[in-house]
Design brief:
Order of helices and strands: HEEEHHHEHEHEHEHEEEHHHEEHEEEH
GO cellular component, one term: cytoplasm
Pathway: Amino-acid degradation; L-kynurenine degradation; L-alanine and anthranilate from L-kynurenine: step 1/1; Cofactor biosynthesis; NAD(+) biosynthesis; quinolinate from L-kynurenine: step 2/3
Strand content: 5-15%
Number of strands: 15
CATH class of the largest domain: Alpha Beta
EC number: 3.7.1.3
Structural class: alpha/beta
Distance between the termini: 35 Å
Largest sheet: 7 strands, mixed
Keywords: Hydrolase, Pyridine nucleotide biosynthesis, Pyridoxal phosphate
Helix content: 25-40%
CATH topology of the largest domain: Aspartate Aminotransferase, domain 2
Shape: globular
Family: Belongs to the kynureninase family.
């Protein structure tokens, strides 16, 4: 039996315990939703004030040069590269994950069409985050060249489709947003490339949560959020990574001036920049982009392997405690128990999932809900400890024991649920 004293002892031994002080968390809150919106780094407030009052307020337009606003997409991209197994000059921070998927999928299709024009199948997971599917559908309709989307439910489905030699590109979530299933990037890449298809990795629920090696595993493209585990702030611009072998084989479908070879020449026709900058589009949201660096600098002062080790210990603990303390309440674990297939969130299915999450939030334990019937708890090792997990499960036990979820106010759905 695990008890609170054991959790406290583990906290004392924790090498990452010191990093909690770098995040501004409300007193009395156990934040288990960092896989949806990361906590605010303490440095963000002073930096935001400096950007608004000095860089914008006093230096005005000069800050494009003096504060290197122009260089932000690649400078931040080079920092993110250190977390995703990439080299300098391969990553940009720009736009949203949604727009970046449109760009890299367009690139993949164009590259493949030159060598395999007969291939028309784009593969994605049935359980992918919906925006990925919407973008694929939208691009297919836009280009009207006979491409079709085929959804898979398992690795076996993927391998079967690859054997057909019809697949042009595969879009996969490195960690599934609902279940937390974690793909073996190296093995999947090898299978896809064996059949001459290209792969696009959605890193939204893995960057900052699990170590990865995009370049070493010969991935083709990757996109992902900076506002989840990387703590970049609400709606902060996303990352876009391209294997150098593909960088020059792409004409930007969103050919804005930031991706131009000579943006200040004011040329009448588009000429793509050399390298990763060609994946940029229009003017960047500078205030939001500046704040991303606060979270990145915290990550770069630690070690992703240590983060991963603690993540697995905390998710193990969460699973074990729910089984130990709440076994009679009908929760069904849908997150893999195997470490090699688990990301950094834990999900349970329960028919009253939405109301239970609302009751927990009222107690100061913030998780989130995803259809259908899924309670999702994000485990962020830099600002969560073992006692936090113990206390969170005790709150869950009390919500169920006293049927707090039956309160009518917890049945009411807001615009964002």
């Amino acid at each position: 039996m695990i008890n609170r004293e054991q959790c406290l002892a583990w906290d004392k031994e924790d090498q990452l315990n010191q990093f909690k002080q770098h995040f501004a968390l409300p007193e009395g809150v156990i934040y288990l939703d960092g896989n949806s919106l990361g906590a605010q780094p303490t440095a963000a407030l002073s930096l935001a004030n400096h950007v608004v009052t000095q860089e914008w307020g006093k230096d005005l337009i000069n800050s494009w040069n003096t504060a290197d606003w122009w260089g932000l997409p690649t400078r931040l991209g080079d920092k993110v590269a250190q977390l995703i197994g990439a080299d300098s000059g391969e990553t940009v921070i720009t736009d949203s994950t949604t727009l970046n998927l449109f760009k890299v999928l367009s690139a993949a299709i164009k590259i493949q069409a030159e060598q395999y024009p007969e291939r028309k199948v784009i593969v994605a997971e049935k359980d992918a985050f919906p925006t990925d599917l919407y973008i694929i559908e939208g691009l297919i309709n836009q280009i009207s060249q006979g491409y079709r989307l085929v959804l898979i439910e398992s690795n076996e489905d993927l391998y079967s489709l690859l054997d057909s030699n019809e697949v042009v590109a595969v879009v996969l979530s490195h960690v599934n947003y609902r279940t937390g299933y974690f793909y073996d990037m190296s093995a999947i890449n090898a299978k896809i490339h064996e059949k001459n298809a290209l792969v696009i990795w959605d890193l939204c629920h893995s960057v900052g949560a699990v170590p990865m090696e995009l370049k070493q595993t010969d991935s083709d493209f990757a996109i992902g959020c900076t506002y989840k585990y990387l703590n970049g702030g609400p709606g902060s611009p996303a990352l876009l990574w391209v294997n150098p072998k593909h960088q020059e084989g792409f004409w930007q479908p969103l050919s804005g001036w930031w991706g131009h070879q000579q943006p200040f020449a004011m040329a009448q026709h588009y000429q793509p920049s050399q390298g990763i900058r060609r994946y940029l589009c229009g003017t960047q949201p500078i205030v939001s982009m500046r704040l991303i660096e606060c979270g990145l600098d915290i990550f770069l002062s630690t070690d992703m392997q240590l983060i991963r080790e603690k993540s697995l210990k905390l998710t193990d603990l969460f699973m074990q405690l729910v089984e130990q303390e709440c076994s009679e309440f009908g929760f069904t674990l849908i997150t893999p128990k195997q470490h090699k297939h688990r990301g950094s969130h834990v999900s349970f299915r329960h028919e009253q999932g939405y109301a239970i999450i609302q009751a927990l939030i009222a107690r100061g334990v913030i998780g989130d809900y995803r259809e259908p019937e899924v309670l999702r708890f994000g485990i962020t090792p830099l600002y969560l400890g073992y006692e936090d997990i113990w206390n969170a499960v005790q709150h869950l036990k009390n919500v169920m024991t006293h049927a707090e979820w039956k309160n009518k106010q917890y049945q009411i759905r807001g615009s964002v649920t």
